[in-house]
Amino acid sequence: MRIKTFLLIFSMLFACKKDVKESGNVTRLPYFNSADFTPNWEDATHRIPEFSFTNQNGEVVNNQTFEGKIYIADFFFTSCPGICPKLTKNMASIQETYKNDEDIMLLSHTVMPWRDSVPILNEYAANNNVDIDKWHLVTGDKDELYAMARNGYFADEDFTKTQVESDFIHTENFVLVDKKGHIRGVYNGTLPIDVERLYRHIEILREES
């Protein structure tokens, strides 16, 4: 009796482990249409709003720049001593991985536009080997940048709690956007395990028609 019970429990545990493993084999990505990042597997109701900013070379960067591209967006500032160097390092790694892939681009928004002018962004780009054809560092109007972070990319987690417009934005999120401007994933850009998950998801998006 004990042997039969042991075998039954063992078989149930094995089955559970198998189900978990199989469910982890992601073959498609959901859409994220709201700031609570509830996955929607059917409908894409949110698209990145229209924007127009200025990059490190003084050029206009807008939605058309990324039309038909998969891109990763983040928010930073050049004088940040904390998480930003990690974010920049990991974005640089993504740039290197996809340096020969024209369908993958990067977009970093400053959250300190009153300081991060075009010349400062240009110097920062040079110091971090940013490829202008692959990775845009952008500045612009503070209100527009903050609205884009909060309402476009849902990147400011604190704002969803406080709703204080003047609060400084500082987020470690990388946001994955598909070729049609839909958010398909959010990742902690400072964690290697999450960056690896981002790489896997980029490959899934590349397989979409």
TrEMBL record:
Superkingdom per UniProt: Bacteria
Cysteine pairs bridged by disulfides in the record: 80-84
Keywords: Copper, Disulfide bond, Metal-binding
Residue ranges of every copy of the Thioredoxin domain listed in the record: 42-207
Keyword Nucleus appears in the UniProt entry: no
Gene3D superfamilies documented for this protein: Glutaredoxin
Any one GO molecular-function label of the UniProt entry: metal ion binding
Binding-site list for Cu cation: 80, 84, 170
PANTHER family assigned: ELECTRON TRANSPORT PROTIN SCO1/SENC FAMILY MEMBER, LINALOOL DEHYDRATASE_ISOMERASE DOMAIN-CONTAINING PROTEIN
Family, as annotated: Belongs to the SCO1/2 family.
Annotated protein name in UniProt: SCO family protein
Source organism of the structure: Seonamhaeicola maritimus
